[in-house]
């Protein structure tokens, strides 16, 4: 840990060197006894230091590994202090299921996340709470369904975008290319068509600017520095660092969406809503005399931004998935055999094909399981004082759920650290569901766009492999698939590939 602060923004290194002697003197709570906090009797955990808590006990580059080690010492439910406030950590399927599913309402709050709160001002659908969250989420789900999320019309949009993606990849002429931005364009266009009825050409400068801001923010939120900013909110106001870049990027996106909203207001036809923004504007008009209405401009802008960011996140899974398929060419070849048998070469893959393609379905699930895209989930919070496994957790306490501990459970998945589609196949080669498959979280805060993401992953991957053979620039055995950042999002390493027309 002597070099921990070197992994942070260089301008802030001196601040953390002050605390290292304190950390070296810290000792864990070896007896594992419950901790007191306010009127609560929290689960046991390592002894926190004054002011900084347990932050220096945690490897901010690999939080999941630290949580796994703590669970061995303290069990599946334990307490860590990130700064001065406690966070109750749930580790393993049983504890997470009991909280998020069996006690879904009680654990449905959004936990403390200072950087996100600064960006969202507690509006929108991801970082809001209480009545606001329930109303905006209910409206968003209903509206997305009405525009075909999980239905035929959205499938048509994805298939159309898959054809555009294929053309963009074909234009690389089988030459080495970094597919990051090409792969980001496709899911981004799908969510844009739902939000404001527009798809962009892949060379459109506004489009590329949006994608660049999103990519920068993905890197920033997964950095060690961001974990420290969330633990010590004073850093956001008084220290330089990448958090300022993130907030500037967020402001850029919000400004762009505000312009889209203004355009919609000028051309709105309340009898013929075109997209999500129109539906929200109509709802605002219906509730304009309600002083307590949540359907206001601030909620519209930030909800649209939330949907845009979440909807584009599929690109990271796609990019990681293609890297894994190059690492395992036999898996790619077997998918292509299944595509040839079920779909053929000429028609577009559709969702109806999935039930006849168990191996491909298993690979899509295994990609999501293996890469563990959001290892520690978004923070939850308890909505009331609650007794949980003989501990008393006060209302508002932040809850961290280790999705890694579920997706990489060695009792459910025989070799969890190995990429193996067999984890989702039975002895007869049929697709096998698993309750442990939680890449989208679980319970009342499960990802709003789960259905859309599942559809995109299947259709984009099958369409790419129908039209191309993936060729890496190095021997497959030399491909490193280790995530380069996993603070919040597991980010794949940069790579180049050749897309050889099939």
From TrEMBL:
The keyword Amino-acid biosynthesis does not apply. One of its GO terms (biological process) is organic acid metabolic process. Heme binds at residue 447. GO terms for molecular function: heme binding; iron ion binding; oxidoreductase activity, acting on paired donors, with incorporation or reduction of molecular oxygen, reduced flavin or flavoprotein as one donor, and incorporation of one atom of oxygen. Its cofactor is heme. Its main location: endoplasmic reticulum. This is unspecific monooxygenase. It comes from Trichechus manatus latirostris (Florida manatee). The gene is LOC101350013.
């Amino acid at each position: 840990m002597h070099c921990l602060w070197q992994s942070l923004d260089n301008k802030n290194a001196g601040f953390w060197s002050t605390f290292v002697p304190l950390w070296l003197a810290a000792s864990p709570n070896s007896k594992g006894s419950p901790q007191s906090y306010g009127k609560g009797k929290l689960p046991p955990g390592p002894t926190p230091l004054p002011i900084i808590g347990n932050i220096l006990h945690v490897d901010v580059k690999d939080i999941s590994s630290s949580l796994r080690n703590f669970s061995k010492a303290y069990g599946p439910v334990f307490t860590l202090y990130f700064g001065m406030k406690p966070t109750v950590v749930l580790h393993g399927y049983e504890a997470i299921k009991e909280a998020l599913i069996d006690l879904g309402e009680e654990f449905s709050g959004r936990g403390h996340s200072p950087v996100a709160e600064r960006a969202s001002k507690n509006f929108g659908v991801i970082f809001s709470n209480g009545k606001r969250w329930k109303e905006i989420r209910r409206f968003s789900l209903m509206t997305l369904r009405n525009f075909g999320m999980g239905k035929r019309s959205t499938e048509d949009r994805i298939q159309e975008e898959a054809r555009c993606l294929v053309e963009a990849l074909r234009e690389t002429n089988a030459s080495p290319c970094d597919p990051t931005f090409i792969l980001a364009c496709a899911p981004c266009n799908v969510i844009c068509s739902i939000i404001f009825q527009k798809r962009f050409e892949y060379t459109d400068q506004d489009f590329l600017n949006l994608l660049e801001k999103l990519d920068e923010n993905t890197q920033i939120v997964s950095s060690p520095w961001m974990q420290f900013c969330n633990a010590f909110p004073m850093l956001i106001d008084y220290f330089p660092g990448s958090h300022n870049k993130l907030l500037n990027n967020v402001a850029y996106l919000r400004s762009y969406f505000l312009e889209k909203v203004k355009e919609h207001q000028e051309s709105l036809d309340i009898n013929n809503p075109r997209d999500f923004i129109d539906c929200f504007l109509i709802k605002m008009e219906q509730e304009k005399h309600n002083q307590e209405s949540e359907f206001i401009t601030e909620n519209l802008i930030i909800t649209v931004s939330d949907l845009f960011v979440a909807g584009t996140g599929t690109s990271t899974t796609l990019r990681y998935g293609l890297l894994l398929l190059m690492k395992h060419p036999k898996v790619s070849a077997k998918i292509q055999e299944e595509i040839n048998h079920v779909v053929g070469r000429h028609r577009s893959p559709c969702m109806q094909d999935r039930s006849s393609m168990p191996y491909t379905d298993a690979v899509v699930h295994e990609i999501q399981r293996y890469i563990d895209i959001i290892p520690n989930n978004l923070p939850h919070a308890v909505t009331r004082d609650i007794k949980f496994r003989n501990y008393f957790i006060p209302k508002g306490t932040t809850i961290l759920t280790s999705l890694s501990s579920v997706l990489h459970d060695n009792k459910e998945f025989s070799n969890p650290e190995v990429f193996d589609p067999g984890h989702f196949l039975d002895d007869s080669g049929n697709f096998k569901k698993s309750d442990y498959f939680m890449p989208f979280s679980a319970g009342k805060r499960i990802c709003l766009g789960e259905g859309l993401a599942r559809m995109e992953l299947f259709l984009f991957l099958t369409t790419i492999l129908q039209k191309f053979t993936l060729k890496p620039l190095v021997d497959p055995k030399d491909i490193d698939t280790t995530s380069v950042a996993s603070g919040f999002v597991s980010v794949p390493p940069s790579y180049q590939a050749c897309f050889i027309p099939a």
